Amino acid sequence: MLQKPERLIVDGKRLDGRAFDELRPVKIVVGPLHRADGSCYIEHGKNKVMAAVYGPREVHPKHLQEVTHAIVRYRYNMAPFSVEDRKRPGPDRRSIEISKVSREALESVILKEYFPRSTIDIFVEILQADAGTRVAALNAASVALADAGIPMKGLVSACSVGKVDDTLVLDLSKEEDNYGQADMPVAIVANTGEIAFLQMDGHMTQEEFRKALEMAIDGCKQIYKLQREALLAKYGGLENE
Amino acid sequence: MNNGKFVLPGDLVGIAEEFLAGDGVYEEGGKLIASVTGVVEIDEKAKRISVRPLAGVPAKIKKGDFVVGRVTDVRESIALVELSRVKPNETREVSNGGMAIIHISNVRKEYVKDMNEEFSPLDIIKARVLDERTLQLSTVGRRLGVIKSICPHCRIPLRRNGDALECPKCKKKFKKKISEDYGTGVL
Q: Closest to A191 (Cβ–Cβ): which among B4, B11, B57?
């Protein structure tokens, strides 16, 4: 188990040596799964996340289908081995909530009207968790949707920001998440700057909140660049054929 | 914006005054924005800008497409077909599929007297889409029709023998609207 560190910020640096506005290293692989219509694997620091997209396809059970637009289903799931103690498999209160808010974030960009009476299914598996899994999952899902060729208004990019030792820091690590004072995951649509998703845990003053939101949006923009590069690396090579 | 530029969903490709929005492009607030990953294509004549997808494409049935499905029921003048795949996107499930209909007048060029002679439940067929909204199909054409069928008594695949199908076990013969690709595995 983690020991509570005495201080989370030592000599103006974080425990892992990052600056206050620095992200953890991110690696994005587009299309690792061949059976899915679209997929993406992301390593965000020690987080390991796999996302798969199926559809648009027929809705089962049939009564869920909508005549005017496609429905979107999002499943956030943590593997039993993703955390230190074994996680009891299956959906729990936390993952149901994360699924709901993440689905709503993606629904705001997917052009659902193009596919009436169908469903777009998104499955995200957390293989290894280390704080900030919901934003890593959202980043992976958004790239997987682009890989599946599902029409969208833009890519969703997400990032978390928090407060530790009375200082605002970007992209919380495990220690900072567990023993910090606040945690705020944010997702934006990078092209328009719209906020697609925002949650907050803990306490911040109004001034801190404004500053934190600014930092988070900057972080999301950095993530967007990485998502863009990953998609370009997979598909941009075909540009000159 | 130039022809052949690589774009992602959300990228600005043009202004509503200069072009019409084609495939893979949507209009919002006077701006033309890409909705899929791909390269920009400009049709100067039609003044239309579209994005040719490079990532996957959802399988959507349109008029004139060739589809593969399974016959689920044969009535007096129609056969019901459960759609599965659409050419040329065979690896993806269809998004606007469901129950399609072949009317007796769309089975073959010649007059068809009895629908039960042409199709039977569980036949796998290839057909052309006449209307994507009502899902009307046609099997008029040499490569269209049954591509796999089983014997209703022995439950083993029928073999092609000239212009009829024959059960290898009970030697029963079946007429049917057979595709040229019967038994070849070619979709």
A: B11
Report how far residue A56's alpha carbon sits from residue A73's, in angstroms, rounded to the nearest whole number. 11
Amino acid sitting at position B122: L
Sign of CA dihedral B118, B122, B123, B127: positive
Domain B66-174: what homologous superfamily? Nucleic acid-binding proteins (2.40.50.140)
Q: Per residue in B129-161, pLDDT tens?
A: 999 889 999 999 999 999 999 999 999 999 998
Fold of B6-53: OB fold (Dihydrolipoamide Acetyltransferase, E2P) (2.40.50)
Distance between A112 CA and the closest CA of chain B, angstroms = 12
Collect all residues of chain B within an 8 Å Cβ-Cβ radius of residue A146: 8-9, 36-37, 55
Pick from A188, A209, A97: nearest CA to A142: A188
**Domains, chain A, with CATH or none:** 18-236 (3.30.230.70)
Facing residue for B6 by CB, picked from A117, A191, A239? A239
A161 - beta bridge partners?
A: A170, A184
Delimiting residues of CATH 2.40.50.100 domain(s) in chain B: 6-53
pTM: 0.90
Minimal C-alpha gap between B97 and chain A (Å): 7
Looking at residue A237, what is its pLDDT? 59
Comparing CB atoms, the residue among B11, B58, B97 nearest residue A150 is B58
**Predicted-complex ipTM score:** 0.86
- State the nearest Cα–Cα gap between B106 and chain A, in angstroms: 26
